[in-house]
User: Fold this.
Amino acid sequence: MQNKTISNSLILISLIITLLSFISNSILQFWMNLYFVMMWNYIWVLAQFSLYQFLHWWFLHLLSNSIFIYLFWNQIEALIWKNKYILFFILNTIFVGISLLFLSSGNTIWISGFAMALLAYYFLELKWRNHPDYKWALLFLIINISIWLWSNISFVGHLSGAIFWAIFYYSLKKFKY
Assistant:
């Protein structure tokens, strides 16, 4: 597999934007929340949608997401082709962002909604192929969605990412895109 994948680019963008947020806290104002919508400042809302996926609050979360992206996303990117992958990332960013804006009560950042969407893809694809590991993918999906019960991680972000992938996955199958 080549090293110049979209997934690896997303890791690099996340790293750069998160490091910039450690240097300048003002970037953290682009967490996904209703502030700019309530202020009718839609230019800043667009900035939120562009940045919230790449911000991480702490280094360990950035590291764990980066490892997950590197191990799994590159494989999924190879399965669904780059044009679908880019489309998926953009539509997922919008879907999860809107879900976070209107269904979440706090500030939310990171690319976990996209990670959950890809984990849902992994589950659905393995299930469709009757591969026995689909049960493990389902277990990790359930764990990652329910992790909010004992942590400060966004339930809405994780769940909406998984829901979006199911919609996208079945749309691809139905319309044979």
